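Bug #2210: token dump truncated for TRAP transporter small permease protein?
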Amino acid sequence: MAASSERIAMRARRWLRLATAVLCGAFLVALTLVTVVDVIGRYLLSSPLPGAAEYTEILLMAIVFVGLPAVCLDDGHVSVDLLTAGLKGVAERIQLNLARLVVAVVLGLVSWQLWNHGAQLDSYNEVTVYLRAPLGPFAKATAVITGVCAVITLVIAVLRLPKSDGGGV
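Reproduced locally. Full output below:
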């Protein structure tokens, strides 16, 4: 039973990783197109893309937060192992899963604060300057994604999955 659930979790990990990579790639292509159109318009036609800076900000936010689940799925968080570099076997697995639990708690707290920030932006009817896009929903979307990342990290810790090699599918 445990081997079966681990196999299912590893397969889900690979496919979720692939989906986030494809989505991030699409956002990067869109960001490139916005930049190219803006530069060509600005320097060749003396007419920059209206709202290009805001499109860039929104796309960068999307890339970072859509990429975050891939980082969680790959155990790719930045870590310093000065004190734990010599751990082997069971001690290394315990340290890995404790670190995952800490990351899950921190991501949960960040998610909660992002949601509160989104609610505050909503209450002020805060919008972007040029596009007039409301900022609250963007903050709340990042909160949801960060919360999903907390759950992903917690599930990986609870199932004690081996560290991912980050190889995608």
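Output looks complete on our side. Residues 2-158 form one domain. Marking as cannot-reproduce; reopen if the truncation happens again.
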